[in-house]
Write a structure and sequence with these properties.
The chain has 128 residues and is α/β, with parallel strands linked by helices. Helix 2 crosses helix 3. The longest helix is centred in the N-terminal third of the chain and has 24 residues. It is elongated. It starts with a helix and ends with a strand.
């Protein structure tokens, strides 16, 4: 291999390591949402209202925070449920949930999708 190819490969490895390291640090690394205390407890309609009124302020308040959100299940997919048609929750473990049922979800806010007008959560679990 030529010197230029080795240098290019080394540069790609360094950039990739920096990117993944930065993301790991910014998201708090591996988290156990189940044992974390929720920083906010709210309803799906209230939290969505905050994001639709001022997404920058709401993002600063909720991003990467553990929250507990209550709402009516309006959609059920494979490991994903939607509350009040506005909060999408990626479940850690598949659970049977009936459309129309009221649930409390605990999860980490990953962001707000302006295009779909939907708040996204991951690492979610249903609070019993």
């Amino acid at each position: 291999m030529s010197k230029k190819v080795k240098l290019l490969i080394g540069l790609i490895v360094i950039v990739a390591a920096g990117y993944f390291g930065y993301n790991y640090i910014m998201t708090g690394g591996a988290r156990d949402i189940q044992t974390e205390k929720s920083e906010f407890t709210t309803s799906a309609t209230d939290v969505f209202s905050e994001f639709s009124n001022n997404s920058e302020t709401a993002t600063a308040k909720y991003l990467n925070k553990t929250v507990e959100i209550s709402g009516k299940v309006t959609n059920v997919g494979e490991n994903v449920i939607t509350l009040d048609e506005k909060v999408s929750c990626q479940l850690q473990v598949a659970e049977k949930v009936a459309i129309g049922s009221q649930v409390n979800i605990k999860g980490r806010v990953t962001g707000y999708d302006d295009l779909l007008e939907e708040l996204k959560l991951d690492q979610c679990l249903i609070v019993k």
